[in-house]
Amino acid sequence: MPPLADILEEYELLDGDDRYRLLIDLGQQLDAMPDALKTDATRVRGCSASVWVYPTTTADGRLHFLADSNAAITKGIVALVLAAVQDRPAAEVAGTDIAAELAPFELSRQLSANRTQGVPNMIELIRTTAERLAG
Protein backbone atom coordinates (compact mmCIF):
# COMPACT_ATOMS: atom_id res chain seq x y z
CA MET A 1 0.00 0.00 0.00
CA PRO A 2 1.40 3.40 -0.94
CA PRO A 3 1.96 6.05 1.74
CA LEU A 4 -1.03 8.25 2.51
CA ALA A 5 0.71 11.35 1.09
CA ASP A 6 1.15 9.59 -2.27
CA ILE A 7 -2.48 8.52 -2.29
CA LEU A 8 -3.58 12.09 -1.53
CA GLU A 9 -1.43 13.46 -4.34
CA GLU A 10 -3.15 11.16 -6.83
CA TYR A 11 -6.59 11.67 -5.27
CA GLU A 12 -6.37 15.45 -5.66
CA LEU A 13 -5.78 15.09 -9.39
CA LEU A 14 -8.98 13.09 -9.85
CA ASP A 15 -12.66 13.84 -9.70
CA GLY A 16 -15.89 11.95 -9.05
CA ASP A 17 -15.87 8.50 -10.62
CA ASP A 18 -12.07 8.39 -10.83
CA ARG A 19 -11.84 8.95 -7.08
CA TYR A 20 -14.23 6.03 -6.58
CA ARG A 21 -12.00 3.88 -8.81
CA LEU A 22 -8.93 4.89 -6.81
CA LEU A 23 -10.66 3.87 -3.57
CA ILE A 24 -11.73 0.55 -5.08
CA ASP A 25 -8.15 -0.06 -6.26
CA LEU A 26 -6.84 0.70 -2.76
CA GLY A 27 -9.28 -1.79 -1.27
CA GLN A 28 -8.02 -4.46 -3.64
CA GLN A 29 -4.49 -3.88 -2.33
CA LEU A 30 -5.39 -4.92 1.22
CA ASP A 31 -3.91 -8.20 2.42
CA ALA A 32 -6.46 -10.99 2.21
CA MET A 33 -8.33 -11.47 5.47
CA PRO A 34 -9.18 -15.09 6.21
CA ASP A 35 -12.89 -15.72 6.59
CA ALA A 36 -12.22 -17.26 10.02
CA LEU A 37 -11.26 -13.77 11.28
CA LYS A 38 -14.49 -12.20 10.06
CA THR A 39 -16.38 -12.57 13.29
CA ASP A 40 -18.63 -10.43 15.43
CA ALA A 41 -15.58 -9.59 17.57
CA THR A 42 -13.69 -8.09 14.61
CA ARG A 43 -16.69 -6.34 13.04
CA VAL A 44 -16.65 -2.55 13.14
CA ARG A 45 -19.91 -1.24 14.51
CA GLY A 46 -21.81 1.57 12.83
CA CYS A 47 -20.79 0.83 9.25
CA SER A 48 -23.55 0.54 6.66
CA ALA A 49 -21.57 -2.26 4.98
CA SER A 50 -19.92 -5.07 6.88
CA VAL A 51 -16.36 -4.15 7.88
CA TRP A 52 -13.91 -6.29 9.80
CA VAL A 53 -10.56 -5.18 11.23
CA TYR A 54 -8.11 -7.54 12.90
CA PRO A 55 -4.85 -6.29 14.44
CA THR A 56 -1.63 -8.27 14.27
CA THR A 57 1.90 -7.37 15.30
CA THR A 58 5.08 -7.99 13.37
CA ALA A 59 8.24 -9.46 14.87
CA ASP A 60 9.63 -5.96 15.40
CA GLY A 61 6.48 -4.78 17.23
CA ARG A 62 4.75 -2.91 14.44
CA LEU A 63 0.99 -3.02 14.04
CA HIS A 64 -0.36 -4.59 10.89
CA PHE A 65 -4.10 -4.68 10.36
CA LEU A 66 -5.99 -7.19 8.29
CA ALA A 67 -9.27 -5.78 7.10
CA ASP A 68 -12.11 -6.46 4.71
CA SER A 69 -15.55 -5.25 3.72
CA ASN A 70 -18.36 -6.67 1.65
CA ALA A 71 -18.61 -3.38 -0.32
CA ALA A 72 -15.86 -2.30 -2.72
CA ILE A 73 -15.90 1.43 -1.99
CA THR A 74 -16.14 0.85 1.75
CA LYS A 75 -13.18 -1.51 1.50
CA GLY A 76 -11.29 1.32 -0.20
CA ILE A 77 -12.14 3.69 2.64
CA VAL A 78 -10.87 1.05 5.08
CA ALA A 79 -7.64 0.84 3.07
CA LEU A 80 -7.31 4.62 3.18
CA VAL A 81 -7.71 4.65 6.97
CA LEU A 82 -5.15 1.88 7.32
CA ALA A 83 -2.68 3.69 5.03
CA ALA A 84 -2.37 6.29 7.80
CA VAL A 85 -1.16 3.74 10.36
CA GLN A 86 -0.21 0.45 8.74
CA ASP A 87 3.08 -1.15 9.85
CA ARG A 88 3.97 1.51 12.41
CA PRO A 89 4.89 0.98 16.06
CA ALA A 90 1.85 0.77 18.35
CA ALA A 91 2.90 3.88 20.32
CA GLU A 92 3.16 5.89 17.09
CA VAL A 93 -0.25 4.66 15.93
CA ALA A 94 -1.77 5.54 19.31
CA GLY A 95 -0.45 9.09 18.95
CA THR A 96 -1.59 9.55 15.35
CA ASP A 97 -4.58 11.79 14.72
CA ILE A 98 -6.02 9.60 11.98
CA ALA A 99 -9.00 11.89 11.38
CA ALA A 100 -6.62 14.81 10.76
CA GLU A 101 -4.56 12.64 8.40
CA LEU A 102 -7.72 11.86 6.42
CA ALA A 103 -9.14 15.41 6.49
CA PRO A 104 -7.55 16.50 3.17
CA PHE A 105 -9.52 13.74 1.40
CA GLU A 106 -12.79 15.45 2.42
CA LEU A 107 -14.52 12.07 2.42
CA SER A 108 -17.75 13.48 3.83
CA ARG A 109 -18.00 15.77 0.80
CA GLN A 110 -17.07 13.09 -1.72
CA LEU A 111 -19.11 10.17 -0.40
CA SER A 112 -22.54 9.65 1.07
CA ALA A 113 -22.99 9.73 4.83
CA ASN A 114 -23.75 5.99 4.74
CA ARG A 115 -20.29 5.29 3.29
CA THR A 116 -18.42 7.30 5.92
CA GLN A 117 -20.51 6.83 9.07
CA GLY A 118 -18.37 3.99 10.39
CA VAL A 119 -15.03 5.75 9.91
CA PRO A 120 -14.95 7.28 13.43
CA ASN A 121 -15.67 3.83 14.92
CA MET A 122 -12.87 2.29 12.85
CA ILE A 123 -10.47 5.03 13.94
CA GLU A 124 -11.43 4.49 17.59
CA LEU A 125 -10.90 0.73 17.27
CA ILE A 126 -7.43 1.27 15.78
CA ARG A 127 -6.51 3.87 18.43
CA THR A 128 -7.63 1.78 21.41
CA THR A 129 -5.91 -1.31 20.01
CA ALA A 130 -2.68 0.67 19.55
CA GLU A 131 -2.91 2.14 23.08
CA ARG A 132 -3.47 -1.30 24.57
CA LEU A 133 -0.53 -2.81 22.69
CA ALA A 134 1.75 0.18 23.38
CA GLY A 135 1.14 -0.61 27.05
UniProtKB/TrEMBL annotation:
Family to which this protein belongs: Belongs to the SufE family.
Gene3D superfamilies: 3.90.1010.10
Entries under Pfam families matching the protein: SufE
Superkingdom as given in the UniProt entry: Bacteria
PANTHER family from the UniProt entry: SUFE-LIKE PROTEIN 2, CHLOROPLASTIC, SULFUR ACCEPTOR PROTEIN CSDE
InterPro entries: Fe-S_metab-assoc_dom
Domain Fe-S metabolism associated: 15-128
This protein's name: SufE family protein
